[in-house]
Design brief:
The structure holds two protein chains of two kinds. Helix content of chain A is about 80%, strand content about 5%. In chain A, about 35% of the residues are buried. Chain B has one domain: P-loop containing nucleotide triphosphate hydrolases (Rossmann fold), CATH 3.40.50. Chain B has a six-stranded mixed sheet with strand order 2-3-1-4-5-6. The chains are: A mainly alpha, B alpha/beta.
């Protein structure tokens, strides 16, 4: 792992990401204290895991700078941090099942259990491997695939990443699709806009995910890496904000959406008229 | 110090009001009129409709309660927390006058605090054969009410009196 100029930009953009998600976690804590509902607790848990993922990516980079090199702890954080997205999606899925998705109790339990079980196994494997292998290219659970004359090395990390991508697309894609459909059917402006905001949040999350995939293909070009990293951080931050606004619907947001009522307009114009006299 | 505290203090006051009355009195129609400024056909309310009015310095949360007999036993839980109630009476329905009187007295005697503001609305004033307002005041014994109250003739069909009634109500909260 090398830290160059681009890494500092990535560090800053991850910081932006963490900043937004941490602020939303604080808002959700207040929200939970006020409402004390299971739904708010689920959303808070999901957002906490999203924040921890961003925090891990910053901490290991900062540790690298501070220590001037790699260490077992940095390796652990670098590889375990992204895994925290799995419980985040598991909780987001269960939360969405309360309002948007119509999955049965059994389906919900299976999907949640599958994601969490995979998270547990993957965490154990990664942690074990990090402490037992000094050479990153020669990991314990590496598989060698022979294709004609070449040998491709496939690490279990690739399987974990594939699973993560599948889970994130499955959860966000379903939430987004259903939110758009419900928004089209809804005739209540506040609910309609709320669902649309969730849909936009999900689309931005998928965009962030696509940029993450693009990130690895441009790793040799620092300028492009910086642009992609900043765009990705902004997409994720906007996605977190969008989903938060759509689900929590704070009063100021509701106020912005709903049209002023006839009585409000009449009363305010009367009050304004009285002031002018 | 008080200046610093005032920075963190919300400048907008909150008031919860409930609209109650017998079924088919026009409660939801009045609420929809407040919202849109014109008459809207409504269906019987099952439970509660909620609407928020944002006025300068005051946010009013309006709870429109279902008037059917089966729902009336849940009124007290909402009314007890209310800062004001709007009691709607169908002025054209003499047949249900005594029932309306009984429900009004039940509500005002058992469910409200003394500092609550009460607005009584005689709705459907555009229809013929109306109950006389003074007769209504005497029969309902409004003068003995321990609350601040007012009575208005309205029609949620034409909009007559609705603004004046709610303006009085809001002005009372603003005081």
């Amino acid at each position: 792992m090398a830290l160059d100029t681009a890494s500092y930009f990535i560090l800053i953009s991850s910081g932006i990401n963490l900043g937004f998600s941490a602020v939303l976690v604080i808002f959700l804590i207040f929200n939970f204290i006020r409402k004390k509902t299971i739904g708010t607790a689920m959303l808070l848990t999901a957002y906490t895991f999203f924040s921890l993922t961003s925090a891990a990516s910053i901490i290991y980079r900062l540790l690298y700078i501070a220590q001037g090199g790699d260490s077992a702890l940095i390796e652990q954080l670098a590889s375990l941090g992204p895994l925290l997205l799995l419980p985040a999606f598991a909780y987001l899925y269960v939360f969405a099942c309360r309002h948007i998705l119509k999955d049965s109790e059994i389906m919900r339990t299976y999907i949640f259990a599958l994601i969490v079980a995979f998270f547990g196994i993957a965490t154990a494997v990664v942690a074990y491997d990090n402490f037992n292998v000094s050479d990153h290219l020669n990991r314990v659970f590496t598989t060698k695939v022979f294709v004609t004359n070449s040998i491709y090395t496939i690490s279990y990390i690739h399987f974990i990443q594939i699973f993560q991508i599948v889970v994130s697309i499955y959860v966000t894609g379903r939430i987004g699709w259903r939110a758009w459909r419900l928004a089209r059917k809804s005739d209540q402006p506040v609910r309609k806009r709320g669902l649309q905001t969730i849909g936009i949040g999900v689309l931005l999350y998928l965009l962030g995910g696509m940029l993450s995939a693009f990130d690895s293909t441009v790793s040799g070009i620092p300028a492009l890496m910086i642009v992609v990293a900043v765009l990705r951080a902004l997409a994720f931050a906007a996605a977190y904000i969008g989903m938060y606004l759509g689900w929590v619907m704070p009063n100021w947001y509701r106020k912005m959406i709903r049209k002023r009522s006839w009585f409000e307009i009449q009363y305010k114009s009367l009050a304004k008229g009285a002031e002018n006299v | 110090m008080s200046f610093l505290l005032s920075l963190f203090k919300s400048r907008t006051r909150n008031a919860d009001i409930t609209i109650c009355g017998l079924d088919d009195a026009g409660k939801t129609t009045i609420l929809r009129f407040l919202e849109t400024g014109h008459f809207n056909e409504t269906t019987p309310t099952m439970g509660v409709n909620r609407e928020t009015l944002h006025l300068p310095g005051l946010q009013i949360n309006v709870f429109d309660l279902a008037g059917q007999e089966d729902f009336r036993n849940m009124w007290h839980s909402v009314n007890e927390k209310s800062d004001g109630i709007v009691f709607v009476v169908d002025r054209s329905n003499a047949m249900r006058f005594n029932e309306a009187k009984y429900v009004f007295q039940q509500t005002t005697n058992a469910q409200l605090d003394n500092d609550v503001i009460v607005l009584i609305i005689l709705n459907k004033s555009d229809l013929p054969d109306l109950i006389d307002k003074s007769q209504f005041i005497n029969e309902f014994d409004l003068h003995s009410l321990p609350f601040k109250w007012a009575i208005f003739d309205t029609s949620a069909k034409t909009g007559e009196g609705i603004f004046d009634a709610f303006k009085w109500f809001v002005d009372e909260f603003m005081r």
